[in-house]
Every structure is written in C-alpha cells, then in structure tokens.
Target: Chloride channel protein
Amino acid sequence: MSLVSFRTKLAKPEPSWQLCLIGIIGGTLASLCIILFRLSVESLQLLYLENIDDYTTVSEFYRFITPVIAVLFILALAWISKFKYSRMGIPFVIHRLKANYGFIPFKNTLTQFFGGIFALAGGFSVGREGPAVHIGAASSSFLGSKLALPHNSIRTLCACGVAAGISASFNTPLAAVIFVMEVILREYKLHIFIPVILASIIGSMMTHAAFGPYHEFEFFAYIVIDFWHYPLLIIFGVGLGFLAKLFNTSLIATLRVSSKYHMAKRLVLAALIMGTIGLLVPQSMGASLSAIGSMLDQNSHLLIIISILVAKFIATVAVLGLGVPGGIIGPTLAIGAIAGALMAFFVSFLYPEVSFAGDYALMGMAGMLAATLNAPLAALLTVIELSNQLQLALPAMVVITSAYLTSAQFLKNRSIFLQQLEFQKLPYLASPVERVLQKHGVLSQMDTNFKVLNAPDSNQIKWLLAGQNHGEKLIIKPDNNESIYKLVQIDMNIHPLDGEDQAIKSTFMPAIDSQATLSEAYFALYKQREGAVYIYHRSKDKIIGVLAFEKIRKILTQGNV
Model:
C-alpha cells in the first residue's frame, strides 16, 4: 500500500488496521519517552534517598534544600530555552487536542520533560502523570506530523500517546484507556477506542519489561470491608466531596493570585514552602505513597494523620498553584488515602478488633480522584488496578457515587482540569458542526475527477463545459504566475434566452492542505456557502483533489459518526 492510500484510509473515521498500526507505533514511541523520563527521575532520587520517594530517611537540611536546588535547575532551564511562561500537563493536552488536533510545541515538551524531572527529583508534591501525559501526547503526535498524516488521525495518535504514557507510568492499562475517553477526549468512539487500547497495552508491556510486573500500591492488604460499613462509606464519600471542592477552589485561587508575579518569584516561593513543609512533615514530600504506606501499617496517632493530611494538602495546592511542573493525580490519590486513614481512625472505635486503615485509604483514593476530576469510572479502575484488588469495586462505587454527587451536584464542583483551562483562557470546546467535521479528513471526501486549465479564453471554457464528462470539475488558473484557482461551471440559476449561450459562473477556490479536516474546508467556504476548495500536498501549485461545499453539507446532514 502506498503512503497516499495509507493517508486516505486514515482520513476516514472508521476502524482500520492502518489506524491500529499507527496507534501501536505511537504508543511504542510514547512509552520509550515515558520510561526514559521515569528512569531519570528515579536515578536522581536514588542519589540521595534510600528508597524512591521516601524522604523520611534523609536529614532535615536535605529535605529543605532539595526543592530549592530543583527550582534553580528549572529556572536555569527556562533561561536557556527562553521560556517565560509555560502551559503544560493534562489541561494543556486537552486544549491542544480540542483546538489543534493534538499538536504539541517542541519547546513546551522539552520544558515539561526536564522540568518534570527536576520537580519530581526535588521532592515536590506533584505527580508524574502530568508530564507523562504531556510527553506521551507530544511524542506520538510528532510522529504523525512527520508523516504528514491527516489531522483527524493525529488527534487519535495523540490520544494513543496519552494512554501509553499513563499505562507506562503507572502500569494500569485499563484505567489508562478509560482515562483517555472520560477525561482527555470526553467521548467514546470505536475507531478511536481500539487504537487507544493497543497503545495502552504497549505501554503496559514495556513497563513490565523495564520495571517488572508490579502495581503502584500493592502494599495494601486485601480489604475486609463488609456491608455493615456501607453507611460509613456514604458518610465518608460526602466528606470527600467537600474535601475535593476545597482542593479545587484553593488551587484555582492560588493560580489566580500567583499569576500576578514573575515565574522566578513564584517558583522560589514554591521551593521555600515545600522545603519548610518537608522539614516539618517529611511524609508530605514526593508523589507516591511509600512513606504513607509505612504510616498506615503502624496505625499512626490521630495528630500525625491530621498533620500529614494538612501538610500534603497545602503543599500540593501551593506548588501546583505557583507553577511547579507536575501532575495532580498522584497527590490527589495521596490526599484521599490519608483522608481514608483518618476515617479509619474513627471507625476503629466501632470495630476495635480489626484495623481498616488500608481499606479506607483505598476508598479515599477512589472518592477523592472521582470528585476532583469528575471522572468516576476512571477513578474506580485506577484504584482497582493500582491496588490489584478487584473485590474493592463495590465499596469503592459506594464512596465514588456519594463523593461525586456531593461534589458535582450539590457543591457545583467541576473538573479541576476544566477549571484550569478556563483560568488560562484556553479553549477546549468545539461547536457541534466542528465536532462532526473534525472526524473526517479532506482526503476521505475529495473528488479526484477534475481538469486544470492555465489562462484559457472564454470560448475554450464554453467548449469544455459543453463536452465535459459527468461529474468532472473544471478548474482554471487565470494567471500562470499566481497560485489562484477558480471553479467554473454552468450557472443553473440563470436560464438563457433563445439563441443565447448558457451562463457561466466562476468561483474562487480556497486552498486546503491535505492534512486538514472537513472543518477547515467548511469554514473556508462558510461565507459564500457554495463552490469548492482545492486540496494540495506540500505545494499549493500541486492540486490533488477538489472538495465541493455540497459534499460537506451532506456529511453534516447525515449527523455525527
């Protein structure tokens, strides 16, 4: 199969082996980048930590100075790359998917890659999934742009990169697929679903090869919650809904206040805050739950649990709100787990013979993630896969439902990603017309039956129109020195008098790149609502097809796909 026919097949919004193939290739490339990112972070951490993300074993001086050193590296990176302000992470990827078909700027990705490494190695309370999504999306969409694939397929490639990045980062292939559909794309389409699954499988397989077949939170014991706990779980879920509302509101408020100050001042302040909190509460540093897991095993005192919860909450809101590059999911899971340990402390008065700290920690992770992101299904599968415990599904659903309803319905709390996008004034919504037309590449609908004439006279045009084949489009180029083309056709709205020639109409044809979707073609013809665009590949003088406005209108009348 030629590359031309390969691109044409990808331009159609339907399942195909071609789309699956680029999903696998894009997922592989994204996984390699994420594995490199993760190895870099862990290698730096092991230079001064006994265990990855465990800051309880280092001295107070190192806990304070490490975030400061990390910020100095981030500022040096910004100075070298001349990057004054960066929009990164999951919100930025959502914006680029909706507004730019998933194209991610290279400098932005470079800043995210190294900035994320420094932030995570420096002990900041941020997650690695933010950089993972960004880097995975950028690496896979880069492949599509180099191959000049249709924009609609690059959008799918970007989604595959996100799935592979999440799967390679946390070893959660199923949760990665649902995360893409529920949080990133916010739609379920079969022709996208299959390539995303394949990319997620690739991410998981490569994670197994690089880090082994383990899950992030397998240190939790098997849950022992029974039906008698469900009223308590409902109460717990309601509390998590309020906690999620407070978290989202605090983060947006911090973003709003800090945006008035220079990036250097914000990052230095973030380092001082993180260093001070880490000095007092070392368990609040880092992204994972290694230190918190040991605390749960020891049935920690109430004041210790509260201090860690408050410290983790403040540290996460402060560093993310001040612009430290990193993800929000890891810290959100940690906050939910600590809140679960706090709930378990009070439950122990009702059931003193059994410790439920691990059980409620898992429930807290599920409820907090669902309420913060407004993504209940993704939260459920994330916690199931991270803990490798299918039996927590039912009690987790109880917590997730109550937390989500409290947060979204009663407190009107919206996804933190959407709130970040609105604060940064980044568009993420497309009109119904755009949503339909963006799924079709122009290559899938263009007409290749056309003839081009250079500077013809009126008699030649009339002769060709009179004898043209059925459906053949006649294009003229009035001036050989300019890339201007016009579509000429008989004007059916004007009836000639006896003895007169049929009226001829010429319409200017906008140029549309072969990678474009029907959306670009539609808006190029939107004002005149007639005529056609011509499709070119690389050079505007090389016409490869014609797309009439009526054909685009037909796609719209058929409805969504």
Q: What stands out?
A: Strands lie at 450-454, 473-477, 486-490, 504-508, 511-513, 532-537, 539-548. The first helix runs from residue 3 to 10. Residues 491 and 504 are 5 Å apart (CA to CA).
